[in-house]
Amino acid sequence: MLEKALQGVDLVVHTAGPFQRAEECTVLQAAISTKTAYIDVCDDTDYSWRAKSFHEQAKAAGIPAITTAGIYPGVSNVMAAELVRAVRSENGEPERLRFFYYTAGTGGAGPTILTTSFRLLGEDVIAYNKGEEIKLKPYSGAMTIDFGKGVRKKNVYLLNLPEVKSAFKILGVPTVSARFGTAPFFWNWGMQAFANLLPAEFLRDKVKVQKLYKSVDPLVRAIDGIAGERVSMRVDLDCSNGRNTIGLFTHKKLSVLVGFATAAFALAVLEGNTQPGVWFPEERE
What we know:
This protein is α/β, with parallel strands linked by helices. 41% of the residues lie in helices and 25% in strands.
């Protein structure tokens, strides 16, 4: 059915999340079989590396594909890659890379981002410390980060996000982590409570998480109208030569920025700037 729908199509953009716990890359496989270019906005580590495993098939089919091509991950990966390349161009070596994200409420994304967030609370956080993989508790490790004008200081917490593994493996940074925070502040308290009180098996269960989402959705929508959609990404890189660099990007509406970011990746594919194969955003190809 998917193969038929993709006949004569130049590019398929896969946005049908949540991607957590998905066992097949059905849309990517259909794209490869029909020789259709592909991008997705995946925000799940396992799914993104499952997509990457189709690299040789995509290359043989002559189609370009980009996974995790949204905002975070996506634009944040590109920000990290630019910081790393700038440092190496000056004979420095990156030692620690940290992703910090803030989104007001659900950022206008509603059920998808809320369901994704709940399911991420059921996963151990994978981070890297001096070249070693470590597992940490979700929504722990609170830090207060200054996101600059329009956002200022916000609390952020550890989450298991795919850019951590891809930055470690592709950019070769030995210490990598990612943190996220939201507003109003009591949503962070709620996320911590879910992570600490609900069994991981509950949070990994699609049906149970959907019921949980439906129970809080009216309140979330009401508060979203007050909180707004502002989003901010900060990427910090510490280097061996003592140089510390920061990349910062803020936009007043997450829903608008998602469209801009995904469209930029789509254009990179359609204009022939992406080689055949499956790539992460930080890869030059």
